[in-house]
Amino acid sequence: MSGHFTDLRLNQRGGDGGEESFWPSFTDIMTVIVMIFLIAMLVLLLNNMELVKRLQATLAAERAASEQVASTSSQNRDLQNQLLSTQAQLDMLRMQLMSTGEERDKLSEQLSQSRDALEQSQAAAQQSASELEQERSARSALQTQLAQAAAQLAALGKERDQQQERMRTLEQDRQQAATRLASLQGDFATLKVKYDKLVRPARSAVGKYVVNVRIMRQDGTIVRAVQSPEQKQFAQVSETEMYAMLDKLHAAHPADMYVRIIFPDEPGLSYSEAWTMTETLLKKYDYYYLDSADGK
Which domain holds residue 255? Predict the structure, then answer.
């Protein structure tokens, strides 16, 4: 040996003899054994790593298989549910098919009824068309009659206008004749008065039954008073009482009753009112005017 360390070099030759040559050989052998052990350990480690990988792959495959089994179970349940739903749908379709058959029978019956109704409607339509044609003919005839009636009406209207024009002309002639007649009657009355004045004696109260009638307006009201020969003063009366009294006196003296109408200085009456009242009383009760009326 050289120094404190063993020389592990292979095939080292020295001068120590056979004992020293034995240890290098042993060292070489141990080196080989260690190397073999290391190589074996390396191979074993590599194999273990491969086994670990395979084990991990196997575990992953088992997990995938478990998941696939679970998924397959879920799919089976879903498939079973779908089968149940499909069966229910089939049952419903069978019921709908049965109902459809009943509805088809009903529809067939309704179709038959509709055909009958259609035939009746067609017959009614044909009848209506015939009636419509008759109505058109009747309307055409009525329109012709209406046109003729309108023409006749226009002719009658024209004739009516002509008649109205003739009536207006005749009315104007009548009014003119009436005016001339009134004028002639006025002239005749004037002549008769003049003749009566010439022939008849004048109106006189001598020897007559004289009745005085006084008329005037006070505070807007006409006041009447009557005095007969038997009365010393006037008696104020209403219009009705005045006529009743004059009727009674005239009945007692029908031939010689002389009516004197008295209007005060300011009677409050218009000339027309005074003349109308005077003429009315004289013509009804005075002998002179009654004789004139009888002479007519």
Answer: 203-295
